[in-house]
Amino acid sequence: MVGISNLFRMKFIHEIQHAGWSAPFDAATQNEATEALESGLVLFFPKIAFALSDKEAELRSPRVIDKSKNVNYNPATGRIGGTICAGEEAATLTQMMSRFASQTKALLGGILPRYGADLIQARTSFRPVEVAGRNSSWRKDDTRLHVDAFPASPTGGKRILRIFSNVNPERPRTWRVGEPFEEMAKRFFPKLTRPLPGSATFNYLLRITRAPRSEYDHYMLQLHDRMKEDTDYQQTVTQHTQPFPAGSTWVVFSDQVAHAAMSGQHQFEQTYLLPLRGMLEPETSPLRVLERLAGRKLA
What is the pTM of this model? Predict the structure, then answer.
């Protein structure tokens, strides 16, 4: 990695003391933020809060969800799902999530202008349920360190960029952040298996996936699972505990940064996809790392 590894080695968090979703950033801050993000750090904005109106604050409750763990919003269609809200409450919830989606776009345009038109805005979610103590299988347990991979929506190597905002009025959202992606990948890659011939087409035709799953996506799903199921790894790997206070925001390439949400309630999240052509240094991407380990193209 040219010019990045020496600058950010042994760090987990890159803090930016900046207030306002659409306030301007100077060029030096923009460049440093891009390098930090691509090196596998979490961009932390302790002064950027997503403000709620009194009506919106009333929806900050687990009662708004159905059987899901979060409410989801599609910025492309303006539709929400995963909620029991109807009528005026549904309209308020939709407007709130639409505003968050818009403000994240403004923030990325200000701090990461290089990505510009390459960014693809995906789903928005609101997570009003407490993380700690939730019953789930180890595969769905987000209190275990993992990197993100989408079983039903293969990325084909596109980056997964996520913006989180803690709207809890008092409590922090506490994360663990793990070792660099390349170190983790070298640890687990020898144990991974290649996809069965024809499996990508088979899963797509049966609508198990929304697109054919690349070999890269196949490996990323395995890394997600191998990390979570390895109890010794979870306990002994180098890691950092980071509380994100009430009224703070953070940005991360969640396909690259090993992370685990340990506790917290009431969080907004916006997902973006970024093709490698938009990156400052594509060689830092999980796709390029795994291709170096495999010795072949994976997507």
Answer: 0.94
